Amino acid sequence: MKKVFGGIMATTVALGVIAFPNLVSYASEEAVQPDAQGPKLKLRLLETTDLHVNLMNYDYYEDKEIHTFGFSKTVNLIEQARREAKNTLLLDNGDLLQGNPLGDYVAKIKPLQQGEIHPTYKALNLLRYDAATVGNHEFNYGLDFLETAMEGAKFPYVNANVYVDDHDTNPDNDQNYFTPYRIITKKFTDENGQEQTVRVGITGLVTPQIMQWDQAHLDGKITAKDIVETAKKVIPEMKKAGADVVVVLAHTGFDKDITKYNPENAIYPLSQVDDIDAILFGHAHVEFPSASFSGIKGVDVKKGTINGVAAVEAGSWGDKLGIIDLTLQKYKDTWIVTDSQSTNRYIYDSVNKKPLTDANKKIANLIAEEHKGTVEYVRGPVGNTTAPINSFFALVNDDPSIQIVTNAQKWYTEKALEGTKYEGKPILSVGAPFKAGGRNGVSYYTNIPAGTIAIKDTASLYIYPNTVKAVLVKGSDVKEWLEMSAGQFKQIDPAKTDEQQLINNDFPTYNYDVIDGVTYQIDVTQPAKYDSKGNVVNASANRIKSLMFEGGAIDANQEFVVVTNNYRASGGGNFPGVKAQNIILDAPDENRQALIEYIRDQKTINPSADNNWSFAPINGNVKVVFESSPQAKDFAEKLGHIKYVTTLESGFAKYQIDLAAKK
């Protein structure tokens, strides 16, 4: 019998609710009107999302307490928000189980056993969550681990678009892997102090890209269907089953290009599906509502609605608590949402640089054993480095923090291919700046001093539990791979003398692939050929210049083994020419483990970059700037071509990079 989470089988409706007429919600074209004299009540929805095992306000990479993130801080906001409202539901939007060394410790180092409770669920159980959904990172450690972990959750899980792979072509007989929705029948207090029964329907949806990103774990076991099409199917079922209010936990982001459909980030079209009253979303680690969404058709950043539907995204790592306050009014035997207000509350004041809430000691006591074990684990030595390693300038300069990873991957792959038909083929190695500030804040950089390298340092250099994969591609594919990566940069106008920003913040830094084993330059006066989704937007663009292999121009037809990770090799990032069928090395080891083994083998490493890439010089008096950590100031002076300008209110520092052609 298939295991299904959430307390009921996937094909049943929870709590034995009887069917009611499929009433149309306030958001649809033919909205019903509530009774003028009908009772009113306020319902507060509380959201956490993308916690990524950051239960403690502790940075395991820096090995110190921190004020800017951590669920132990969010707890106090939750308790305060509950005290303020008569009626609340507390919900989580996924990406709970992976993301920092504590997650790795529980999954890999001291693996969770049957009957044990994952520290994440210890914490969430304490707060009495009402429901949750899965995020894409829940699948990173495989389905067996996920099932074992989720058994410890004392609240229901919902997801409607992940199905059991039944290996046939008939979609009509597909069975949900999780419980597709729950209808929670609760007694709430109305504005007159009277008790009222409200049936809140909750469903969950996850980006279907899980099938690419965790193909090795999921292929042949589950399938994932389109978010919007699934919503159109499941929400009428929820209304028919008696849901007064429909809440969607959507682990998918908001694509600001609303003219094109992006299945990974599908919040905008999801908001146009009938009968949704509230959307709690995540995945992108940003805040909604916020000024960054201003000016988008259908978005009201003041009220926090998208096409009239209340919505919230509460950042990541517990740095915010998302709140949607719904006003409900009775209409016959159901409730209609008549108004809403979405907000976020913060654990840290980033302007005045001060914490806004203390850490909750109950969480620290609850997971003390796992926290202590993780700290001891990350402090374990691996080897030594003769110089500091940091990622402050990894986006704009060939960088040791990437070079060490690409060296390790090449070393690992050379050994793995010995005795195979691919032995002797040229090996290129791909790395990316995973910790490069951006949406994760000014502290999100690798910064390892000279001396001992510990496990925590390798986890900082390679933060994801990806596994080593190698693909066989041609020289022409290498060129397009780099063209895609070069979308990290904005186009620079050589005729302008005003400041021009270099970094395209809409392009994820983990998709900025550096390929070692070839040499090349990036001409940022050219437009990007590809957008961040892999679509060709300037077919004639040619940013990659002087692409060479072993001192000569690369042969477009020559075959190369390119070592990367399971995410990229399986199509993650939509890089041109990179397909799962091109994988020739499907290794079981994590890239991070390859890095650890490499450092142990070398014992002492010299973390110097080989400068295989650079920006093509620009003719003109250009002033090109970018942001990084203020801590990078001293390192900039040593590089020479980068100089510190000022520290900004955001906490980041502005730097200028010299791209002018030498006279």
Describe the model.
Helices cover 21% and strands 27% of the residues. It has 663 residues and is α/β, with parallel strands linked by helices. Helix 2 crosses helix 10 and helix 11 packs across helix 15. The model is unreliable at 1-31 (pLDDT under 50). The protein starts with 39 loop residues before the first strand and ends in a 6-residue tail after the last strand. A hairpin with a 5-residue loop joins strand 7 (181-189) and strand 8 (195-206). The strands form 10 sheets. Strands 7, 8, 10, 11, 12, 13, 14 and 15 form an 8-stranded mixed sheet that branches. The chain has 2 domains: 20-371, Purple Acid Phosphatase, chain A, domain 2 (4-Layer Sandwich), CATH 3.60.21; 380-657, 5'-nucleotidase,  domain 2 (Alpha-Beta Complex).
Number of strands: 37
Number of domain units: 2
Give the overall average pLDDT.
91
Measured between the Cα atoms of the first and last residue, the distance is: 74 Å
Q: Give the full name of the CATH homologous superfamily of the largest domain.
A: Metallo-dependent phosphatases
Structural class: alpha/beta
Helix proportion range: 10-25%
Number of helices: 16
Using the alpha-carbon principal axes, give the shape.
Answer: globular
CATH third-tier fold name of the largest domain: Purple Acid Phosphatase, chain A, domain 2
CATH architectural type of the largest domain:
4-Layer Sandwich
Kindly list the characteristics that best describe this protein.
Purple Acid Phosphatase, chain A, domain 2, 663 residues, 16 helices, 5'-nucleotidase,  domain 2, alpha/beta, single chain, disordered N terminus
